[in-house]
Specification:
alpha/beta, 7-stranded mixed beta sheet, two-stranded parallel ribbon, 43% helix
Length: 253
């Protein structure tokens, strides 16, 4: 006697990819905020898939992710772009979204992404972010970046697009040690223009970003240290790589 086979679970609507390197301290607060947003999602919790792209961590990052019910994709190449791509490669959702491991997302994040991606005029976008703490130095740093964000419709927080558009632009550029997020949104914007689609910035669902780089380097470090980045750019690739290793890839970041 033949028994009916169980129906396969439908693919998730959204796959959230979290690149993570030695994030055992801050990852739990992100995943707690993700769980709240999953339970609030109008399509149901199971319509959201969470993947932690473990970027060769040496601590309990992978175990913490697994304990929270996340899928874990191990990515050995130490590059943020490679971690994002590695997580996306394992994702099953119609929409792929990306957020950093040290933030906290808004409870309505997935509903707003779902709404935006139901609009055929949009190619993707971001939620935007706010800081977990503010100071004069942090505020002026944001003020310096805002004109560029408004001009290009670029932003950060949770970045998202349809899976087929992510594949069409080739994902994140793994040759870039930093700035891969800006390059990705620029490529996505250009791709969208070919079919008269644009990026969007969502309203009212900003991600809360960690201030740990300001805690480590000082609230004014963009004004006191970042000008040296231009000098390193002129001196060549090797100097830029050393800077990136210290600023984005050191364990104490």
């Amino acid at each position: 006697m033949a028994f009916p086979q169980p129906l396969a679970a439908p693919p998730p609507r959204i796959s959230l990819v979290v690149p993570a390197f030695d994030e055992e301290r801050l990852l739990p607060q992100l995943l707690a905020s993700v769980e709240v947003a999953r339970r609030s999602f109008a399509r149901g919790r199971e319509a959201i898939e969470v993947l932690v792209a473990d970027n060769a961590s040496t601590d309990r990052t992978a175990q913490i992710a697994a304990d929270h019910g996340c899928r874990v994709a191990r990515v050995e190449k130490r590059a943020i772009a490679a971690a994002r791509n590695g997580g996306a490669a394992a994702a099953r959702g119609e929409i792929v979204a990306f957020t950093d491991a040290d933030g906290r997302i808004h409870p309505r994040t997935f509903d707003e992404i779902d709404r935006a991606m139901s609009d055929p005029r949009l190619v993707g976008g971001a939620t935007g972010l706010t800081m977990e703490r503010w100071s004069l130095g942090i505020g002026l740093t944001f003020a310096l970046a805002l004109p560029w964000l408004w001009l290009w419709r670029f932003d950060s927080g949770v970045v998202f697009c349809r899976r087929h558009d992510f594949d069409a632009v080739g994902g994140y550029d793994e040759e870039l040690r930093f700035g891969e997020d800006v390059a990705f949104l620029l490529a996505l914007s250009r791709h969208g223009k070919a079919s008269r689609r644009r990026l969007t910035r969502l309203r009212g669902v900003k991600t809360v970003a960690s201030a740990r780089k300001f805690d480590l380097h000082g609230d004014w470090h963009f004004f006191t240290r970042m000008p040296a980045l231009g000098w390193r750019f002129l001196r060549g690739h090797r100097d830029l790589t050393r800077f990136a290793e210290r600023y984005w890839y050191r364990r104490e970041r």
